[in-house]
Write a structure and sequence with these properties.
This protein has 19 helices and four strands. The protein is mostly helical and about 475 residues long. The radius of gyration is 21 Å and the shape is globular.
Length: about 475
């Protein structure tokens, strides 16, 4: 093989391995009986672990191929780890839920697995063509997961809403992409940056396409005012799918956005930095304020996911290495917090064996199921950013990166929003420990839910008590 061919292969070999493993999962699904479909998910976890071991790149080594269109490096690898953690936790924790609702099917795991392939291409992309292909692969998978429970009207509605609004945002992004090509003559990140440096007169045309493209990005991370789909979709989707959707696609979009903004848009950083600073403030504030008024815990977490997206945007606009390092660490911590919380929420049912998400259903839960109450308390405290849990470490790192960039006003607003979020997270704990149950609910911590919540809680405590190890690990990988 020629050196160019070898470099091309090295730039996409993790994605190729994942695609091959994904096809193997499809075959395993056909060969597995209906009662053992969870085995497809477990094989998916094994395949991700194998890919992680094979694809671990040397620190600082970059494999750029196909005419500088895609690159595999430690940055891509870190986000792949986050996707793998989200898949693993969702698979382990969702078995009982899927079985109880009659939707334990191999397709759930294969679709989720192939969505990770799309996310990997998003983060590894150095060309808008590759990014768009990866984004659509991820988006189509998310539409399917949102409407996976065909027996539920709410799930079907979530899938349709997500598809319609997602198609509109994709069209808007694609339209902006064509303007980028018209203004710069290329869709490669490096060539776009070079064109912007050499043609300041063309910036007026570029502003229009930039707004449309950034609006498409904002939709993927559910930033205000492009968040309209998120509450209904997260509430209506099967709970394991909702947990995965609040974590992995958001991390993929943030990882891809950082790479695009810091490389392609570096010459015009003043144009997008202010845009995303304002977007971060609006997203954080709106998400937290609306979450305060929610009596449905799943919907409350949906609005809190919007607020967390705004918080991660602060790392983007800091425009320093600490910024993207803190976003990667935050996304990893958020995976443990949010998927753990969604896993435990999904096992609370009323007498009719229907998932009960009302805040009142959590009343007196500490007496009925002490283990569940302790787990949820850890997740809620961590999401609120209470020290010394991992959520505090994630928020602290982002605030420090923002202050290093001398964006003190943004850091102050972020801190105030973190304090505001404490109220609605604490409400769940108050109901569990200080309110008497008004009606009977069933809350049995199943084996699958226990495994996921236990792993998530332990990681939250370990990261919280030993933050320097994980902070230094991310810094070492993201050189």
């Amino acid at each position: 093989m020629t050196p160019i061919a070898i470099m091309n292969l090295l730039s996409i070999y993790p994605e190729v391995i994942m695609i091959v493993f994904g096809l193997v999962l499809v075959v395993l699904d056909v060969m597995t009986s209906d009662e053992k479909k969870s085995m497809v998910g477990y094989f998916g976890i094994a395949f991700i672990i194998i890919t992680v071991l094979i694809a671990w790149p040397p620190v600082g080594k970059k494999f750029l191929g196909f005419g500088n269109m895609v690159m595999w490096d430690s940055y891509s690898f870190v986000f792949f780890l986050i996707f793998g953690v989200a898949y693993t936790l969702t698979t382990l924790g969702g078995v009982s839920y899927l079985k109880d609702n009659g939707i334990l099917k191999g397709e759930f795991y294969t679709v989720m697995f192939f969505s990770i392939v799309g996310m990997m291409f998003m983060v590894s992309a150095f060309d808008l063509t590759v990014f768009y292909a990866g984004m659509e692969t991820m988006a189509i998978s998310m539409y399917i997961l949102a409407g996976f429970n065909k027996k539920s009207v709410r799930s079907s509605e979530a899938g349709v809403k997500y598809f319609i609004i997602g198609a509109f945002s994709s069209g808007l992004f694609l339209y902006g992409l064509t303007y980028v090509y018209g203004a710069t003559g290329s869709m490669n990140y490096l060539e776009i940056a070079a064109a912007l440096k050499g043609d300041a007169a063309g910036l007026t045309t570029f502003k229009l396409c930039l707004v449309m493209m950034l609006a498409g990005f904002a939709f993927k991370i559910s930033a205000v005012p492009f968040h309209m789909w998120a509450p209904d979709v997260y509430q209506g989707a099967p709970t394991p799918a909702a947990g995965f959707m609040t974590v992995a696609p958001k991390a993929a979009a943030m990882g891809a956005l950082i790479r695009f903004a810091w490389i392609a848009l570096e010459p015009v950083s003043g144009m997008w930095a202010l845009f995303f600073s304002i977007l971060a403030v609006i997203t954080m504030t709106y998400g937290n304020l609306v979450a305060l008024a929610q009596n449905n815990v799943k919907r409350m977490l949906a609005y809190s996911a919007i607020a967390h997206a705004g918080f991660m945007l602060m790392g983007l606009v800091s425009m320093n290495p600490e910024g993207y390092q803190s976003v990667a660490l935050y996304a990893l911590i958020y995976a443990f917090m949010n998927i753990g919380a969604f896993t435990l929420i999904g096992i609370i049912k009323n007498k009719g064996m229907i998932e009960d998400e009302r805040l009142e259903s959590f009343a007196g839960l500490s007496k009925k199921s002490p283990m569940l109450a302790v787990g949820l308390m850890i997740f809620m405290f961590s999401l609120a950013g209470i020290p010394p849990l991992a959520g505090f470490i994630g928020k602290f790192q982002i605030l420090m990166a923002t202050m290093k960039a001398e964006l003190y006003w943004l850091a102050i607003i972020g801190g105030l929003n973190s304090a505001l979020a404490c109220y609605y997270y604490m409400r769940v704990t108050i109901f569990m420990y200080f309110k008497e149950a008004e009606y009977e609910v069933e809350a049995v911590v199943t084996r699958s839910a226990f495994i996921t919540s236990f792993i998530s809680a332990i990681m939250i405590l370990v990261i919280g008590f030993f933050p320097s190890f994980f902070v230094n690990l991310v810094k070492t990988l993201l050189v």
